[in-house]
Amino acid sequence: GKSTLLKLVGGILAPTEGSVEVEGRVTALIELGAGFHPEITGRENVLINGMLLGMRREEIEARMEEIAAFAGIGEFFDLPVRTYSSGMYVRLGFAVAVAVDPDVLLVDEVLAVGDEAFTHRCLDRLARMRRQGVTMLLVSHDLDLVAQLADRAVYLDGGKVRMVGPAPAVVARYRSDVAEAEAAPREGVRVIEEGRRWGNGDVVIEEVAVTCEGRRASVIPWGAPCEVGIRYRVARPVEDFVFGIAWHREGGPHAAGHNTELDGARPVRLERGGEVRCLYPALELAPGRYTLDVAVHAADGLAYDYWCGAAAVTVTAPAPWPGVWAPRHRWEGDGPEWEWPPAAP
Length: 345
Hints:
single chain, Rossmann fold
């Protein structure tokens, strides 16, 4: 139902019931190159296809060389499209589609359309459009790509919505469900709180505490040391376990994520309850409110307990820095004359 959903939003299909509301110009990266005429050149097809996508002729002509460079098909740009390989065909279609200035961009499994360099160009262009405020609706089985590009994700199963939430958490839920299905006949996933917490219960997180300078804290100054403590109990001993934490900017992107496996810890055995702590010598996040997802799971993604929004903290800072990462820094220069406030003691 994923591709069907995109076609409904793009106006290619009409819903059999209900309604779909879209505001602004829509560009669909669904069937790239649809409408290309095989007997005319790539350049001529770009002109026609761009006009079909709603661009004016002068807009297309002004961007023609940019489109040609992005597609990267060289002299073939001025040859008939029938001489193209399937990859060249799709690359040209992608280049035309992203040259439009859409309000809504629909993307359906189209990034595997060339070599690694072209894929990087595609991802860079999509990231730039996202920063410019373009709404993107992405359908993909590439879970890493979903976590990288999406702020929020929808997990569909058999035409039904299983979960909606921050992309990393939804990806983790999907991976856990897949791992659980492959681990049959083990006990099924036990959903503790729909959309917020799930796992099979072999290990259960009992409490998550964020502390700053030895005290529990809901507000942490930028650059201060802090730690996240995870208290857990073991219902069934396991030899395959990973503890992890994900930070999310409230209403914004995934800010950071780390786990014991990525940091090099080799699990041996977990058979009794206890506590693990992740220590941050200096919390260098931009000011704002952050929520934390905390999990303990198997290496293949099978969740013992995955808890979305297990804790929340507000980071305060001396300046309203944008983004999510606020590293320590200073300015120097030869030439400019500045007046700086006195340095902090």
